[in-house]
């Protein structure tokens, strides 16, 4: 829970690059552009990671950075096909690229599409909202026929579950043809996809020769 400042310093940047992560711990946070980004995990993703064998730190904002419906009409598609994900890519990702100076670390995600009967849709991603598994360590309300690609709980939420608490925010798991998983007062719940709810994405940054933030 240590406050790390309003800039990712060169020693911090090099500690990420070298994998020593000296002085950085799960729960520590930076305040960048008036948003608190908290360290949730280290070297979490292992597939399709930018910069071969790149060391990375997973960051999550303490509170939602925007509010948006998961999907603007019904029936509810899978997350990959939602209007919220379109909004993430078109609006939120450019803001993150500016904040972190294009040093977001892409990784592979399996985001099934309603248009792909195989339930396998591997995409290269720099920014997604979290899944039930990443927050709680398991599926709770999600449809069982659409398994998560990565089932590990972020270390932050395992070590200090209090950080699950925030203003209500979406999770990316669809529950049925009208609703999706969400978090409210730290508890898992479901909400109709046409409701406004918070966007609390997970991103990863890698150490580079350029100071970030």
Structure description:
The protein has 4 helices and 12 strands. By secondary structure, the protein is of the alpha+beta class. Strands 1-2-3-12-7 form a 5-stranded antiparallel sheet. The chain has a 3-stranded antiparallel sheet with strand order 8-9-10, with no helix packed on it. The longest helix has 17 residues, at 83-99. The model has no long low-confidence stretch (mean pLDDT 88).
Number of helices: 4
Strand content: 25-35%
- Which structural category fits the helices and strands? alpha+beta
**Main sheet summary:** 5 strands, antiparallel
Quick check: average pLDDT? 88
Please compute the radius of gyration using only Cα atoms.
16 Å
- Uncertain regions spanning at least 5 consecutive residues: none
Helix content: 10-25%
Order of helices and strands: HEEEEHEEEHHEEEEE
Record field, number of beta strands: 12
How far apart, in Å, are the first and last alpha carbons?
A: 19 Å
Strand order of the largest sheet: 1-2-3-12-7
Rough outline: globular
Write the layout of secondary structure elements.
Layout: H1 10-18, E1 29-32, E2 35-42, E3 56-61, E4 66-69, H2 83-99, E5 107-110, E6 122-125, E7 128-129, H3 132-136, H4 155-159, E8 169-174, E9 179-184, E10 187-192, E11 196-199, E12 201-206
Antiparallel strand pairs: 1-2, 2-3, 3-12, 4-11, 5-6, 7-12, 8-9, 9-10
List keywords for this structure.
three-stranded antiparallel β-sheet, 28% strand, alpha+beta, five-stranded antiparallel β-sheet, 213 residues, single chain, 4 helices
């Amino acid at each position: 829970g240590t406050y790390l400042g309003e800039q990712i310093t060169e020693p911090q940047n090099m500690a990420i690059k070298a994998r020593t992560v000296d002085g950085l711990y799960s729960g520590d946070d930076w305040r960048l552009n008036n948003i608190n980004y908290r360290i949730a995990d280290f070297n979490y993703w292992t597939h399709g990671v930018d910069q071969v064998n790149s060391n990375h730190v997973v960051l999550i904002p303490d509170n939602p950075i925007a509010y948006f419906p998961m999907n603007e009409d019904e029936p509810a598609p899978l997350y990959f096909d939602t209007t919220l994900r379109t909004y993430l890519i078109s609006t939120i990702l450019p803001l993150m690229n500016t904040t972190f100076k294009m040093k977001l670390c892409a990784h592979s995600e399996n985001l099934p599409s309603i248009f792909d009967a195989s339930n396998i849709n591997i995409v290269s991603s720099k920014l997604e909202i979290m899944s039930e598994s990443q927050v709680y360590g398991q599926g709770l309300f999600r449809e069982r026929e659409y398994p998560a690609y990565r089932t590990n709980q972020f270390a932050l939420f395992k070590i200090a579950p209090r950080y699950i608490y925030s203003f209500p925010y979406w999770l990316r798991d669809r529950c049925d043809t009208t609703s999706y998983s969400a978090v409210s007062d730290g508890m898992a719940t479901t909400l109709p996809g046409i409701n406004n709810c918070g966007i609390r994405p997970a991103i990863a940054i890698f150490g580079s020769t350029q100071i970030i933030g």
